[in-house]
Every structure is written in C-alpha cells, then in structure tokens.
C-alpha cells in the first residue's frame, strides 16, 4: 500500500503543471498571437475619438452594446437576456411594454416594429441591430435633430456591415458608431 505522500505528489505535480500550461502559457500565447494579428480586437475594439482640443476620448467597444434611450439617437436592442419561453405570458407582457415604449417615444411612427427592437439578443449585449430596425428609426432621428432623413440613412449605410464572407449571418448596423457619427465624432 502506497503512503499518502506517494499518492498526493503526482496529483499536486499534475495540478501545478496543468495550471502553468493551460492557465499561463496557453493564455499568454493566444493573447500574444491575437495582439499581433488582430490588435484592435485584442484590445477590445475600443472606439477612441480625437476631440477638437486634441485630447482623445474612449466611447466604448464596438463589440458591446451601449444603452441609448434619447429620441435623437439610434436605439439598440433591449439589454439583458431572458430564459422565458417565447410563448409565456410574462414574455408577452415584457414585449408589449417594449412596444408601448416605442410608441410613446415615436407616436407618429405606426409601422411594424422590427423584432430586434423588442427582444433581447442571446448575449444580452449585442451592439448591432438589423438594417430594418435602423430604418424604422431614421425619420424620428432626422426630425429631432433637424436634418434630412437621407443624411441619417447615409450614416446608417456607412456603419452597416455585410454577412461574414458574404454568406454567414446577416447585415448589421453598429448602433454606437452611428450615434457617434450623428454627434459628429466619427
């Protein structure tokens, strides 16, 4: 029969070895490679703007949603996730409240509200909305800001990305980038 020292030593050595390999070396290698080949993404895709006085300001990540609720801005998906069934009464009530919110924000707009404006994304922090959701808001933004609808739509088009490799996913509009452009910062 082995002593407890003979059984514990290989387990402790294996734990330490795997911790160094997986927790330190692997992490450092992946971070280093990402920093070389994808530096902006490795740093979090932070949108930094040079202001008129020459100073630089960070506004957020292009990969994580920012909450906008003012009528002068493009508004993204609701933040947060839900594990409610799509057919549950509670989920229906939440969506009805969101629809009411949109109608209160833009009472003249009686078009159908795109689903991504009333339902949260799976991650709960999706920074993008569909082109239909952006188009739904263009007239309101133009009216509140006193600019042409075509100018708002040009900015939306400018910050719309296509499907990955032309076939995976759908077109998406980055809400933060459009809003920074509307404020004249991009």
What does this structure look like?
By secondary structure, the chain is mostly helical. It has two domains: 4-40; 62-182, no CATH class. It is 47% helix and 10% strand. The strands form two sheets. It has a three-stranded antiparallel β-sheet with strand order 3-5-4. Strand 1 and strand 2 (56-61) form a beta hairpin. Helix 4 crosses helix 5 (149-158). The protein is extended. The chain crosses the membrane at residues 12-38. It is a single-pass membrane protein. It is found in: Cell membrane. Belongs to the KdpC family. Pfam families: KdpC.
The residue-averaged pLDDT reads 89
Helix/strand order, N-terminal first: HHEEHEHHEEH
Q: Give the amount of beta strand, in percent.
A: 5-15%
Q: What characterizes the major β-sheet?
A: 3 strands, antiparallel
Q: Overall 3D geometry?
A: extended
User: How many β-strand runs?
Assistant: 5
Number of domains: 2
Helix content: 40-55%
The number of helices is: 6
- Given helix and strand content, the structural type is mainly alpha
Detail the poorly predicted runs.
none
Subcellular location: Cell membrane
Family: Belongs to the KdpC family.
Keywords: ATP-binding, Cell membrane, Ion transport, Membrane, Nucleotide-binding, Potassium, Potassium transport, Transmembrane, Transmembrane helix, Transport
Pfam family, one: KdpC
What attributes characterize this protein structure?
single chain, 5 strands, 2 domains, ATP binding, 6 helices, ATP-binding, transport, mainly alpha, extended, 3-stranded antiparallel beta sheet, 186 residues
């Amino acid at each position: 029969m082995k002593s407890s020292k003979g059984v514990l030593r290989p387990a402790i050595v294996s734990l330490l070895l795997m911790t160094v390999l997986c927790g330190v070396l692997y992490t450092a290698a992946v971070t280093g490679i990402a920093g070389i080949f994808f530096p902006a993404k490795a740093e979090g895709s932070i949108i930094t703007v040079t202001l008129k006085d020459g100073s630089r300001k960070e506004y957020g990540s292009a990969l994580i949603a920012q909450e906008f609720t003012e009528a002068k801005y493009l508004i993204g998906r609701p933040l947060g996730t839900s594990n409610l069934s799509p057919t549950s009464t509670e989920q229906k009530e939440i969506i009805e409240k969101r629809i009411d919110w949109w109608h209160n924000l833009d009472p003249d707009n009686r078009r159908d509200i795109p689903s991504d404006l009333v339902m949260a994304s799976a991650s709960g922090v999706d920074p993008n909305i569909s082109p239909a959701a952006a188009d739904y808001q263009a007239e309101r933004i133009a009216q509140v800001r006193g600019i042409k609808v075509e100018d708002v739509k040009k900015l939306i088009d400018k910050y719309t990305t296509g499907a990955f490799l032309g076939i995976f996913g759908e077109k998406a509009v980055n809400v933060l980038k459009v809003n920074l452009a509307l404020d004249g910062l991009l």
